[in-house]
Amino acid sequence: MLLPIITYPNKQLKARSQTVVNFDELLHRFLDDMYETMIASNGIGLAAIQVANPIRVLILCIPDEEGNQHKENLLEIINPVIHNPKGNVLYQEGCLSVPGFYEDVERYETLSLKYQNRHGEACELHASDLLAIAIQHEIDHLEGKLFIEKLTYNRRKKFEKEYKKAQKEKK
Ligand SMILES: CC(=O)Oc1ccc(/C=C/C(=O)NCCc2ccccc2)cc1OC(C)=O
Ligand SMILES: [Co+2]
């Protein structure tokens, strides 16, 4: 079922998410609901805190060259830990919890990731390009951090101004 996505400046987004210990049917249903919600909102990544569940769970479904998302590319990442981050890239990021705003953010270029899958089995992957960027963006959510907090001073001022204007127009 579709889950409500909480948006900035909701304070819940600042919570630190807790380690998952029960890899049970309840978690599996939640993962399925996260996927349905992410796809319905045109997202390519979603962290559990964004649907108000403070657990260390994130999902990613990076589009292929044609820009289509395929469920076989879905990654369900639980209790992730980044290893050997390397390099430096700039990429214009967006977030379903900050709708309509896109800003350049600096990230590591490549990294290794250790995590558990929905059955609690230990997994590892090596990421570069958009996958590496998305992993860092989503893991920040598990620490209660949004990409707008990583902006340079001037870009942050630009965001605050635009956000206030957009909020006024909605009223
Ligand atoms: C108006 C609005 O909501 O715009 C959007 C903003 C963000 C998004 C999705 C963002 C997303 O999936 N971010 C995952 C993290 C990530 C950021 C940068 C690069 C890789 C991964 C979708 C939006 O909706 C539409 C229709 O485009
Ligand atoms: Co996000």
From TrEMBL:
It catalyses: N-terminal N-formyl-L-methionyl-[peptide] + H2O = N-terminal L-methionyl-[peptide] + formate. It is an enzyme of class 3 (hydrolase). The lineage of its organism: Bacteria, Pseudomonadati, Campylobacterota, Epsilonproteobacteria, Campylobacterales. InterPro entries: Peptide_deformylase, Peptide_deformylase_sf. Its cofactor is Fe(2+). Belongs to the polypeptide deformylase family. The keyword Membrane does not apply. This is Peptide deformylase. PANTHER family: PEPTIDE DEFORMYLASE. It comes from Sulfuricurvum kujiense (strain ATCC BAA-921 / DSM 16994 / JCM 11577 / YK-1). One of its GO terms (molecular function) is peptide deformylase activity. Keywords: Hydrolase, Iron, Metal-binding, Protein biosynthesis. Its EC number is 3.5.1.88.
